[in-house]
Amino acid sequence: MKTLYINIKELLQVRDRNVTLLKGRAMNILPRLQDAFLLVENDTIADFGEMRYVNTEIADRVVDLKGRFVLPTWIDSHTHLVYAGNREQEFVDRINGLTYEEIAKKGGGILNSAERLQKTSEEELYEQSRQRLEQVIAQGTGAIEIKSGYGLTKEAELKMLRVIKRLQKEYPVSIKSTFLGAHAIPANYKNNREGYMDMVIDEILPEVAREKLADYIDIFCEEGYFTVADMERLLEAAAQYDLAPKVHVNQFNIIGGIPAAVKNKALSVDHLEVLNENDLEALKDSSTIPVALPLCSFFISIPYTPARKIIDAGLPLAIATDYNPGTAPSGNMNLAVATSCIKMRMTPEEAINAATVNGAYAMGLSTSHGSITKGKKASFIITREIPSYEYLPYDFGNNNIDRVILEGKEFPEVKA
Ligand code: NIG
Ligand code: FE
């Protein structure tokens, strides 16, 4: 089946030769074709070019996209989309003056979500998660990383990971799964962090590996959560199972997580709301990509990741939503892109690159996702009629997506 999309006003993120990672000034270049066509064969991008070179004969179906832009689907490389219930009460507590840390100290936060998740059946957890996934797909996300970490017992962590696996099977999006057993210290291990780490490493991790339930390993390296030594121990253990690290570091405090993660060959270091010269230095000449989560900064009113500092230092940057019930109850990548421009002073070109090419790198999908390149998955966004691509982040909070095509098919599938 060959579908030819014609009269595309602008085809964004076209890369004749695949690029895996954009750093520094290269992030400010967004290659695009005006008045273009895109040829899709089954689930794959077969060809693209300018309309004057189009050959409509070869297609089984021709779709006229007059006035619309086409760009690769967003790549959301950091989410906690599988969770039970919500935490709007903590949101109100924060409005009334409590901080995220104060709420966590009185038993709220991650432990609150864990308690709910432990009591929720696998079927119900799947149902809630499926609805969220469908919502973010409609918002243009075509590949997504999802973490465990609201289980905090062997049984509940495995339950989360199995739900992620089921989503992988049921939806035409690429999903990567990350084991985040070390997300918080559960109440029954309150004064025994070491004991909890033993349990995660000796009891849960081997089972996660045996059932092939995760692609990556994560830990919340932060004061009041896990130390750098905990992180190093976990990452070494996970390396034996070939689980590369994607870690939560520098959200509230700088405790040395970034240099340690880089040393342990982390694929990504995520959050970085606080960052010093030593961290920037550690990231230079490494294969670790920083990931900013602007919706978390927005929602809990903490500093934004210093994107300008990172990019101007010649480093790469990806952006993701952090979709979770506590610090970012939205998986809307359009909003993450807009917030990156508005609050982190990223240019529209940088933000779009960060949410596509660099997002794909941050979840190990560079060969199949992130750009309009022959041979990659035909997963792309068709916009409404818009005047320019800069309009996308400018028109923040409004929906400019007309249709989402996932692996060659419109989602949700339109019955002919
Ligand atoms: O990425 N910081 C750690 N984990 C999540 C928030 C977890 C929660 O509050 O439920 C985050 O922000
Ligand atoms: Fe997170």
What this model shows, in words?
- The longest helix is centred in the middle third of the chain and has 18 residues, at about 195-210.
- This protein has helices at about 90-95, 100-105, 110-120, 120-140, 155-170, 195-210, 230-240, 255-265, 275-285, 295-300, 305-310, 335-345, 350-355, 355-360, 390-395; strands at about 1-10, 30-40, 45-50, 60-65, 70, 75, 140-145, 175-180, 215-220, 245-250, 270, 290, 320, 380-385, 400-405, 410.
- Strand 8 (about 175-180), helix 6 and strand 9 (about 215-220) form a beta-alpha-beta unit.
- With about 425 residues, the protein is an alpha/beta fold.
- The structure holds N-(iminomethyl)-L-glutamic acid (NIG) and fe (iii) ion.
- N-(iminomethyl)-L-glutamic acid binds next to helix 3.
Largest sheet: 8 strands, mixed
Provide the CATH top-level class of the largest domain. Alpha Beta
Looking at the structure, what is the overall shape?
globular
Number of domains: 2
Number of strands: 16
What would CATH call the homologous superfamily of the largest domain? Answer: Metal-dependent hydrolases
In helices, the fraction of residues equals 25-40%
| Oligomer state of the chains in this structure | single chain
Using the 3D structure, state the CATH architecture of the largest domain: Alpha-Beta Barrel
- Please tell me how large the radius of gyration is: 21 Å
β content, as a range? Answer: 15-25%
Q: What is the number of helices?
A: 15
Low-confidence stretches: none
